[in-house]
Automatic annotation (TrEMBL), chain A:
Phylogenetic lineage: Bacteria, Pseudomonadati, Pseudomonadota, Alphaproteobacteria, Rhodobacterales
PANTHER family hit by this protein: ABC TRANSPORTER ATP-BINDING PROTEIN (PTHR11795:SF442), BRANCHED-CHAIN AMINO ACID TRANSPORT SYSTEM PERMEASE PROTEIN LIVH (PTHR11795)
TM spans (from-to): 6-33, 45-62, 68-90, 102-121, 160-179, 208-230, 242-267, 274-297
Protein's UniProt name: Branched-chain amino acid ABC transporter permease
Source species: Pseudooceanicola pacificus
GO cellular component: plasma membrane
From TrEMBL, chain B:
Name listed for the protein in its UniProt record: ABC transporter substrate-binding protein
Organism from which the protein derives: Pseudooceanicola pacificus
The keyword Cell cycle is annotated on this UniProt entry: no
PANTHER family reported in the protein's UniProt record: LEUCINE-SPECIFIC-BINDING PROTEIN, PERIPLASMIC BINDING PROTEIN OF ABC TRANSPORTER FOR NATURAL AMINO ACIDS
Protein family: Belongs to the leucine-binding protein family.
GO annotation, biological process: amino acid transport
Alphabetized UniProt keyword annotations: Amino-acid transport, Signal, Transport
Amino acid sequence: MDFGPYLMLAMLEGAVMAAVLALTASGLSLVFGVMRVVNVAHGEFYMLGAVVAWFVAQHVGGGPAIGFVAALILAPLLVGGLAALADMTILKRIDYDPERTIVATIGLLYVIQQVALMTYGPNAQPVEPPFNQRIALPWLEWGDGGLAIYFPWGLSTTSYKLFVIIAAVAVILAVWLLMSRSKAGLIMRATQLDGEMATAFGIPVERVYAAVFGIGAGLAALAGVLIVPIQQAHYLMGGDALLLSFIVVIIGGLGSLPGTIVAAVLIGMSDGIISVFFSPTLAKIIATLLVALVLVFRPQGLFGARAR
Amino acid sequence: MTKSSDRLITPNRRSVLKTLGVAGAATALPLWARYTHAQTAEPIRIGFQKHATGIGAAYGRWYERTSVAAVEKINAEGGINGRMVELVTEDDGTDPKRGAEVLEKFANQSNCDIAFGTLFSHVVIGSAPRAGELKLPYFVVSEGHHVASGMLNRWTLQPGITDVKSQIQAMAPFITDTLGKKVTMIFPDFAFGYDHRDNLTPAIEKAGGEVLAQIAIPPTETSFTKYFPKIPRDTEVIYHVMVGPAVLTFVKELGEFFGPSAPQLFGFIDSLEAVDMSSPGLEFLDGSYFWEGNPRYLQPDAPDYVKAYRDAVGIDANGASVSDPKDVSTSAHMFGCWETLHVIKAGMEASGYASTADRQKLVEAVEAMSEMEAGAAHPQGPKLFNGKTHQVFGQQYISKVEGGKLMVQHTASIDDTLYPDEVDYTSMSF
């Protein structure tokens, strides 16, 4: 394949990955930003989103489009509800103590994973995309008669992959509007800045925490629903998602939404490009190395504020 | 210290009751479990190393169903040497480390006579040395070349399924004659894939073709489009063999990548074992070719013993479970469990196997085998066992996807699959 079309294909693949990663990581970042909780079970919420999507698509009749739309609504709600419940029954009881929440969420990770294995089973299951046209992309070339358009072999994407990118951008815009322009966002930011003071002003901090934990998990679940027609739902799929989300959040700065987005695009695109031109293993090595460099030279992340 | 050891030897009321309870339960066992006319009342225990979880889960499910069906058949026909057979199933998580632990458990805790049933090559390679140390006969159903290559030991045998090297050797002339001379291969980046990588190139070259590129993909990969640009432009045939939960994604993305202008495709059915041929995204495979160890779809000319085997395992004419048409079998591999269990039976009968003390005699008896006739014990076809390399040889099938079904086009004979011995296990000590 020529270099130009090759690079374009790599960037398209990278963009899909960046989109999904941005959604998952912004959930993780939101939870950390507001609650100062490191949620190790975050990847499992992503997996649950995919599994619930498969389940809903199986049980809702009327074609793949209706099943998918139902999954898009139900999965984040169900998973978010489950996460809020976990917050109220577990995290609240241990006072959001940093060390203990890490251990508790590790436990949650195993519980969710094993329950998925016991109920959903060890197989990977596909979900049919609501629409999936192959789009061959043209490329420009200097030929004998000047600029000519041709369709290189293999340079293509699908309408569904483009939809994933657009949907992710829309959801992240919505999250940003929620955080910066709404009363709920104001309350969350107040809680983030100073929980005690927020309590003094009559903000129900505990309910805010439950809601934030639920929204964070819901974002991961939404990413899971979006990815499942491209990949497949599998009970172990949360591991990679968790690792990459942490990489993104650390590079972007824990708790910073813009930083998370920039880092997701950086990691997603570089992963796409490096794994196309070199090897996927090298892409992971470089991403992890980047984390180490950020931790050494800029521990608060690219966009993070210094700890007060 | 003294106190605790006192407690160990002094029976209290509860432990006595427990022992009585166990004894009571034992008397309630079916008749055959307590008494037969053989020297010992104990059943023969076959430790079944099952890929119940991990990337081999679909195979594990069907390996178990096939093994259970074979054991039922053997028991209904009077067992082995008058003793019933019992499968002791343990999950190895498709993980080499756990595989070795499972063998340990078979030998030391559950008193198994032998171990059996492993498919994934990394688990076999991880477990076999332990089988050698435990002196436990280890019958693998793996199709990897690691047995015949001499990498393992005298206790590890593969008498029920052919190995990758012989399969590839039999496929190469068909690929170059029918599909094209310039081949690009895509394979999983671990031992099973390396068997394909190392054996396909010489086989294709011998058949007058050329391998243009070899693309290795990590077994846990979930997205594949990024690998496809490495396929050279002048490729005439893509040879693909993938395993694991993401195979469907692999085939789907391959279709999306090429669109209407795809080169010829030749795949090992491993890419689609346990996958419904009518799954969304697989339409583009229509007209492509697959190697099959054993045909998934019931062929029009299938003999009665094949039908009997399929009925016993519980698969319909489409190779799916009779109780759930969406639950597609791993037909091209699982027959190996059935055949291996029948070889074990023949070996135990030939050696007069009575107890774990006869394990060495069992291995020697299997090593002495050679021709096996097609029939109820060998439904996939006739076999030729090589006692020196511990590997069996058999027919291979090439099928074409026609209207969403795999129809056999060509059957390669046993002679096409033979190659010179690479090891003589019989010269090794036990």
